[in-house]
Amino acid sequence: MELMTSYERRGLEKGKQDAICTVLEEKFESSTDAEQEKIRSIDHLESLDDLLKQLLSAETLEHAQVIIEQAENK
Question: What is the DSSP letter of 67?
Fold first, then answer.
């Protein structure tokens, strides 16, 4: 089994964070600096995967903001 370097892990995290910000921008036409900061403070790949999946099912910006808050506080 090949181990992931810290650089590779950080690159994957950044890619997921960018994808989440893009979902917010495209789906809700909103992605504030504060929201992006919260997303970028989450640095676990599994948490970012869960957040992305949940945001895809969010129907309103308010619901998305609640999901982000919950993910940030885990």
Answer: H
**What DSSP assignment string belongs to 5-48?**
PHHHHHHHHHHHHHHHHHHHHHHHS---HHHHHHHHH---HHHH
Note the pLDDT tens digit of each residue in 36-72: 999 999 999 999 999 999 999 999 999 999 999 999 9
Torsions phi, psi for 6 (to 5 deg): -65, -30
CA distances to 3, 13, 15, 63 from 35, rounded to whole Å, are 32, 16, 16, 13
Domain regions of the chain by residue span: 31-74
